[in-house]
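QA checklist item 7 of 12: single-chain prediction sanity check.
[x] sequence parsed
[x] length recorded as 452
[x] structure emitted
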Amino acid sequence: MTTPSTKISRTKLVGFVALAGPVTAATAPIASYLPAFYSEHLGLSLASVGFLFFSMRALDFFFDVLAGVLIDRRPFAGGKYRPWLVLGLLALLVGVWLLYMPPRQWVSVPLAFLGGGLLYLGFSFVSIAHQAWSSALSRSSDERVAIFGYREIAVIFGILAIFLTPAVAEHVYHADFETKVHVIGYALLIGIAITGVISLWAVRGKDEQNLPGQQHEAAHSHRVTLAGVGRVLRDPTVIKIVILFMLAFFALVGTASMMSFLVSGVFGKPNLVAQMQGVYFIAAMASIFLWLRMGKRFGEWGTLRVSTLTAIAAQLSVLLPLYFGSTWMLFLHFALLGAHFGAAPFLLRSLLGRIGQYKANEQGTDLQGILFSTGVFAEKIGSSIAVLFAFLMLGWLGFKPANATDPATHGALLGVYLALPIGAYALMSLIFMMRRSQSELAETRSARNALA
């Protein structure tokens, strides 16, 4: 019996993944804008603000685990992902309003904590449900790669757009800092609401329980047990992917945390920091199409191996502007870095989807939510450790941001800028050399057959 096609049109695919942009953007400006907003403009003490944002980040990790468990263990009659996504959207919208646009007469630490808690709660449920649903939309490897590739484009576009929003507000309306934060909030509310409706409409009738060939998993979704979860999380391939998630985000975030120091300090171009970041994100969006083609042709594992090696070369390209003293070479360096920004994340998510579908067939239990919550958790661990390591090493080597233009500190900055990400990419390459699992071997055979 032939399984009917579950392919969705390109238009509906774009509509579905668009939600990832503003949802991801909801957390992107928090570290850049909100601490100063609450301390300098709303009058909260620095200690209160520090405790507030530390507590919110701690909750964020807990919410990821909670979302994965509830999505898999408590499916609704109307579908496994759609209801959780809707509930998450509601929490996210209220959280954005309270955190970015709090009524002045109500401003307090408890209100900000409530807003941040709702924002991160909604973010966890929406992002994990959306990723798991993305995986469930198709059983085709090529289609799954395409779904996560387009989703990554939406993520990058959302981050770029939300950071451009206050710049546009300043240029057009001469907005002050507080107004910029409010403009960010309004942009997020509008973006999340519109793309949320479009996303749910685009895949109406295509919940995972309605997909052809998945009735077996749906019927057994209530059998999710701790023992079953443990078996999945102990799977060697799952462990490998989780470690790769941490290393990939360690490299990406570690590099990003030092970009402004590099441009303004080592190269003496503080006025070009924003332009360099713009080139970085534009290259990131454009390059996804290349990684998509490679992913379809060589499979996720093969493309990951290539992208890891070329990422090392991209990191080393910082030596070109140093040697030639060319600003254009510096732009080239950031374009090459940006070209690798989205490769590993979307390929690893696609692999998690592959494993989730394989485990559903093998065990009769759908654990996509838990798998993707594990991936998100690994991303955040890798990102947090990257910033900690980068700044600890810079401090240990004598680098001080206030003296970033001092040539005596350039060696320390360049050393950390190169060593941390290249070390992470080297570890990823070593992991690729480890004995491959049956799923990896099966994918390699599939890719070879396609080439033949």
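[x] summary fact logged: Residues 14-208 form a domain with the Growth Hormone; Chain: A; fold (CATH 1.20.1250.20).
[ ] second reviewer sign-off
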